[in-house]
Design a protein that fits this description.
alpha+beta, Lysozyme, Membrane-bound Lytic Murein Transglycosylase D, Chain A, 3-stranded antiparallel β-sheet, 9 helices, 16% strand
Length: 289
């Protein structure tokens, strides 16, 4: 880690039940008094507006309102990509607030690397960012032809784990340290810096990211600061030192007992680990931050 790099916090205080936020099923419905949206599959997106929503430089709109406004002005945008942004824009914002990686970069990389969630690595391994195993990886693996045949890639239990691992992958490696000296809204600098640091071998990688960010106006998600509104609820972030803290589930452990032991809510534990149910397995890695 570069000496001049600021330590950040991952202590996210969430005032709503976030298990639905990270739900990654085949359908997702969002409703507020202003907007109703429904995504039925990865190839179609329906956006219906009930009343005009003003978006000005002085008021940061909800992530869903930004997406709606962009789609209304640019109806020819790829529907699979719109569906992907709809599904993961809020998580990209939360990762940005925690690790200072622009949400626009996270979303653009996810779109490009996963082919808007339709690549084999994403469908079979929940790997949204093309992160390879490397020597430090001890988790599950999936093999895929890339620069060479049958290369080892990381396999995740849930898409949220892929987004968090992407953040840690950049945050913890010295070769990416200079990126964190850039302004959060300097998506062009980030795109070029990722290529220069060796994230991708494609010489056009920066241009591809920049085009996605500008076509879909992903840079607007970089405007969120210490909190943002999701579905009428305010999500706040409090900063301390970021550490990758986890435990291994022991016999007799339950989400309830662990939440009491580590002073967390059950909902918080489920969100951190992308859990859809309360079932735990012995030896399972459970993140506490």
């Amino acid at each position: 880690m570069a000496p001049n790099r600021m330590k950040l916090t991952g202590n996210i205080l969430i005032t709503m039940l976030l298990s639905t936020l990270i739900s990654c099923g085949s359908s997702r419905t969002y409703t507020s008094k202003n907007t109703t949206r429904s995504t039925k599959n990865s190839s179609s997106t329906t956006v219906v507006k009930k009343k005009p929503i003003p978006i000005t430089p002085h008021k940061v709109a909800r992530a869903d309102e930004i997406l709606y406004e962009v789609v209304q002005r640019k109806p020819s945008l790829n529907k699979s990509t719109i569906a992907y942004i709809e599904e993961y824009n809020d998580i990209a914002i939360l990762e940005m607030l925690t690790y200072k990686i622009p949400a626009s970069i996270t979303l653009a990389q996810g779109i490009l690397e996963s082919r808007s969630g339709q690549s084999r690595l994403t469908v079979k391994g929940n790997n949204h960012f093309g992160v390879k195993c490397h020597s430090s990886w001890t988790g599950k693996r999936i093999y895929h032809d890339d620069d060479a045949k049958q290369e080892c890639f990381r396999k995740y239990e849930h898409p949220l784990h892929s987004f968090r691992d992407h953040s840690l992958f950049l945050y913890e490696r010295k070769r990416y340290a200079s990126l964190f000296d850039l302004r959060k809204k300097d998506y062009k600098g980030w795109a070029k810096g990722l290529r220069k640091a060796g994230y991708a071998t494609d010489p056009k990688y920066p241009q591809k990211l920049i085009r996605l960010i500008e076509d879909y106006e992903l840079y607007r998600y970089d405007d969120f600061e210490d909190d943002f509104e999701y579905g009428g609820h305010v999500v706040k972030v409090d900063r301390e030192d970021v550490t990758e803290k986890y435990i291994l589930v022991q016999k007799g452990d339950t989400l309830y007992s662990l939440s009491k032991k580590y002073n967390l809510t059950v909902e918080r534990l489920k969100w951190l680990n992308g859990l859809k149910s309360n079932t735990l397995e012995i030896g399972q890695k459970l993140y506490l931050q």
